[in-house]
Amino acid sequence: MSDPYKTLGLQKSASADDIRKAYRKLAKQYHPDANPGDATAEEKFKQVSSAFKLLSDPAQRSRYDRGEIDANGEEVAGHHHFRSSRHARRSEFTDIFSDLFNDFGASSRAMKGGDLKASLDIDFALAGRGGSHRLQLPDGRKIDVKIPAGVEDGKMLRLGGQGQPGHHGGPSGDLLITLNTRPHRWFSRDGDTVRLDLPVSIQEAVLGAKVRVPTLHGDVDLKVPPGSTSGTLLRLKGRGIQKPGKAAGDQIVRLLVDVPDNDDLADRLRTWIPPTGYNPRKNIKI
């Protein structure tokens, strides 16, 4: 795998926010839904996702920058993770002294286990509505992670007692999970507001229509006003992010007029005469 920084088009000095923005842009560009049947785009999407997974984890990113692991997260020969080695050394000496004190009848000191870190990719709907997602840990355990409704991209969840086992009767450490929301082809969010790019036909835009629209809370009917154009914004009240104890946000629908590849339509437009003074670009100024 190539350098994850180059894959995302970033410098090593990039901030966490820069990494998230670059990932969202490229993932949306190469998403399989936007490039059906395009194997090259699918492979690029996988590379972008893999690069983001490594660089979005502060600990993994630091190890990569120090040359301890490669772009796939694998250990590089000749390098050792200092924290792990130090922990192992401390555990070794703890065991030695524990055995010594136990020989003299003294009790060993209870120690809390270390924390574990993991990342979890979730889809847009799960991040918006909340719910449960099963995660398998490196040690083989499977746990159900509760995703809060409206969770932000990059949010870290702490699961108490799900980390490494404690020493000498001490409590287990915690599991720290970083949530990464996969970009959606049509939906995005702005705080508690959900935004949807909705394709409509020329007929629906010109004559007006009632169309079925998906939301986080189920499909609803939306009235498209006659004479609508691409970029027309319509509001669905209370159909956005619903966080506990807060009023639900709205869903903003942006209409995108879809032009079909149709010979009959093309023939009709060739004979169409625009109204006097009509210029769709008359208000475009710098």
TrEMBL record:
<dbReference type="Pfam" id="PF01556">
    <property type="entry name" value="DnaJ_C"/>
</dbReference>
<dbReference type="InterPro" id="IPR008971">
    <property type="entry name" value="HSP40/DnaJ_pept-bd"/>
</dbReference>
<dbReference type="Pfam" id="PF00226">
    <property type="entry name" value="DnaJ"/>
</dbReference>
<dbReference type="InterPro" id="IPR036869">
    <property type="entry name" value="J_dom_sf"/>
</dbReference>
<dbReference type="InterPro" id="IPR001623">
    <property type="entry name" value="DnaJ_domain"/>
</dbReference>
<protein>
    <submittedName>
        <fullName>DnaJ C-terminal domain-containing protein</fullName>
    </submittedName>
</protein>
<dbReference type="InterPro" id="IPR002939">
    <property type="entry name" value="DnaJ_C"/>
</dbReference>
<feature type="domain" description="J">
    <location>
        <begin position="3"/>
        <end position="68"/>
    </location>
</feature>
